[in-house]
Structures are given as C-alpha cells and as structure tokens.
C-alpha cells in the first residue's frame, strides 16, 4: 500500500471559480443546507472543500451551497490534482459512504449531550434531527411506571440528603431554593434583595383534594393566597399571573376565587386579563355527565394600566413566531403547598428564553446568521426541549 499523499497547502478560491459535479449522487435539500450554514456561522469553516485542478468539486458541495447562502465570496480549497478522473468519481462516493459505516456509543453520546445542555449550548447546531434527539434524551430518562398509591407515598428521608431546607441551587442565571413558597423569609432569601418584574404561580385549586401534611395551610385557601401574594417581592410595574382550574362541589362548579380576587383589588392589583389555557382535546364527558374540561384559567394582574399592543410590527418577513403560551425559564421556589416562579427584573436574559419575536433579527445579526441582504434572518424560533431555540429556515 502506498503512503497517503498529504495536501500541499490550503488555498482560498472565489466561489465563482468552483463548479459542482453534474452527476453528484449526494443531494442536499434546503433544510440541510440551512443547518450547514448555521453550523458554519457557529464554528467557522473548519473543513476545506476538495477540488480538481479545473475547479470541479470533488467533496464539499453542501458547504459551497451554505457559503453562498451566508453571502461568502471565497472558500478554502485543497486541490487534488494527483487523482485520475476515475479516482475522483470513486472518492465522491467514498467520502460520504465511509463516514456512514461508523457507529455511535450512545452512553458516551448521551454524556456529551448532557454536558452541552448544562452549558446551555444549542443542540440544534450539532446535526442530530430533532425527533431523534428528543427520543434519545427521552429514553435516557425513562422510568418504570408506578401506580398512584406508590406515587403518593412519602418516602423515608435519606440518612444524608443531598439538599437541605434553605439550600439554594444556582441554575445559570436562575436560582432555586429548597423551602416553603408560602414562607416570606424563604422567598426573601431566594430573591436576595432583587424584585421580580414577572411572577407566575400555580397554587392549589381551592380544597380540591387532601393535601396530607400541608392540609392545615391549604385548608384556608384565601388565607394561603393572601399570605403568599402579600409578601411577593415584585416591582411596582410587575405582571402577576396565577394559574387556577375548575373545582366542582355538589354537582356544580364554584367560583372559589371570587373572595381572593376582591382582596387583590383591595390591595391595588388590577384585573388586567383573564386567559384560557388550552390543554388539548378533552374527553366526551366525565362520570357526572359533564363535558370533561380541557382547559384551565390564567388570571393576569398588574398595578398600572398598560396600552394594548394588538398589532406587533415585524422588522423582517420571516421573523414571526408562535405566541402560544408556554412555560418559560425563570427563578423559582417550591414548597409543599404552592408552586411559584418569578424572574428578577435584574436577571440577564439568556438566549434560550429570549423573546422569539422581538430579537430574532438582532440575534441573527449577532450570531452571523442574517442573510447577506439583511432582508430576513436564516433562522426562526421554535419551542423545543422546554425552551425557545433557533432553528434554520430553508432558503427560498
């Protein structure tokens, strides 16, 4: 076997000097080219294209298409002038097929993915299809099913618990405390002097069920709500959203929130909005003959009036994104009787939870993903793996 020939040098050629191979069997659809372009914008041009002396491409057709989409004028090339025409035709196939023969060690791959997720790296840039990525991550967290009785059983406390009451976990820009969300001192310690511009909480729905050890607190629902919200560390212009669901007693639903809403108004909170959270298709009916509900309510309060913004102008033709309500990453605290999250006004907005409509153009420019003519970005925001992530838009 002859010793492999090493490339003499890498040259920069204008794209106009390069010619695609007319019978190239490897196809590149618009979605793949957009993903290659996004990868090149993130990592740089890391692999030169391979060409014949006359400029005909041997390997790298997808990268050249992506370069044109990014508005680049030159490409790094390696000239394989020593290959015969037959060798060039064979290598075009071998260059693609040989890489397909490799296998993945899924345990090691999963470890790498978890490391990237912990670093808040956009997994959309690594080339794994989203459905395959979701399946891989989902399978890793599969647990054996347990029945309701087992799920409600309170386990014995471990001899050496990992987290103790009062411990605060730093999750990037966010903080999570082990404590009671109804205790003002716990919330104050979590916020560390900061005030929240937005608070979203999902408390128990009246006396909906037996809350066990927390029954004493939840037994007086109005007192629970008043105690939590009176001590909420929020700014004067904060937005407060409370998720509540229907509760039925004696065959009819009850407006158990009426007294609490009146109390909120007496404290200066305005009934700014009342939203319906669509939870998908409901069942035909329940055991009492009612149509089974497939929704819950979101009560929106604030202290200051805000001008309605019914039409949001778009600076780009393709920067529109879904505004359907979804969970957002935020600072939070959890306890036995209430769940709440609040985002400090001073927190730095991370890329994963940036507003999908407001910053698509600016983020595209900052990331180098804007199209050459700047008329529209080459990515759109999509809800994926519990946060907003940029996803390439195929060129049209």
UniProtKB/TrEMBL annotation:
Entry similarity comment: Belongs to the N(4)/N(6)-methyltransferase family. N(4) subfamily.
Disordered: annotated span: 305-334
Leading EC class: transferase
UniProt-recorded Gene Ontology molecular function terms: DNA binding; site-specific DNA-methyltransferase (cytosine-N4-specific) activity
Catalytic activity from the UniProt record: a 2'-deoxycytidine in DNA + S-adenosyl-L-methionine = an N(4)-methyl-2'-deoxycytidine in DNA + S-adenosyl-L-homocysteine + H(+)
Keyword check for Disulfide bond: no
SMART domains xref list: ParB
Basic residues bias spans: 305-323
This protein's name: site-specific DNA-methyltransferase (cytosine-N(4)-specific)
CDD domains per UniProt: ParB_N_like_MT (cd16403)
Record's keyword terms, sorted: Methyltransferase, Restriction system, S-adenosyl-L-methionine, Transferase
UniProt keyword Transmembrane helix present: no
Domain of life: Bacteria
Entry's EC annotation: 2.1.1.113
Residues of the ParB-like N-terminal domain: 11-97
One Pfam family of this chain: ParB_N
Gene Ontology BP term (one): methylation
């Amino acid at each position: 076997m002859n010793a492999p020939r090493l490339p003499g040098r890498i040259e920069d050629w204008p794209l106009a000097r390069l010619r695609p191979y007319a019978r190239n069997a490897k196809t590149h659809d618009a979605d793949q080219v957009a993903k290659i372009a996004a990868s090149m914008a993130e990592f740089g041009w890391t692999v030169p294209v391979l060409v014949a002396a006359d400029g005909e491409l041997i390997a790298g057709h997808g990268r050249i298409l992506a370069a044109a989409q990014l508005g680049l004028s030159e490409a790094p090339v390696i000239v394989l002038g020593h290959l015969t025409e037959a060798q060039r035709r064979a290598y075009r196939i071998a260059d693609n097929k040989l890489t397909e023969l490799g296998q993945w060690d899924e345990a090691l791959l999963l470890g790498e993915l978890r490391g990237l997720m912990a670093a808040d790296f956009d997994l959309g840039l690594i080339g794994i299809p989203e459905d395959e990525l979701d399946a891989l991550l989902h399978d890793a967290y599969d647990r054996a099913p347990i029945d309701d009785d087992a799920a409600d059983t309170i386990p014995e406390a471990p001899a050496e618990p990992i987290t103790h009451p009062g411990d605060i976990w730093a999750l990037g820009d966010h903080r999570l405390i082990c404590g009671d969300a109804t205790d003002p001192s716990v919330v104050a310690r979590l916020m560390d002097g900061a005030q929240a511009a937005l608070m979203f909480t999902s408390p128990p729905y009246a006396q909906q069920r037996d809350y066990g050890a927390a029954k004493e607190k939840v037994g007086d629902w109005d007192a629970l709500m008043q105690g939590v919200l009176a001590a909420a560390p929020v700014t004067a212009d904060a937005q407060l959203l409370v998720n509540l669901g229907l509760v039925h007693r004696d065959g009819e639903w009850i407006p158990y929130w009426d007294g609490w809403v009146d109390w909120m108004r007496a404290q200066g909170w305005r009934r700014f909005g009342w939203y319906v959270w669509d939870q998908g298709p409901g069942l035909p009916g329940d055991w009492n003959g009612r149509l089974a509900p497939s929704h819950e309510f979101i009560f929106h309060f604030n202290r200051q009036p805000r001008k309605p913004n019914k039409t949001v102008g778009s600076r780009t033709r393709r920067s529109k994104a879904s505004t359907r309500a979804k969970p957002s990453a935020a600072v939070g605290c959890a306890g036995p009787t209430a769940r709440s999250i609040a985002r400090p006004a001073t927190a730095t907005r991370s890329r994963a939870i940036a507003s999908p409509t407001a910053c698509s153009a600016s983020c595209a420019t900052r990331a180098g993903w804007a199209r050459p003519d700047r008329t529209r970005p080459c990515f759109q925001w999509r809800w994926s793996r519990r946060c907003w992530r940029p996803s390439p838009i195929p060129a049209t």
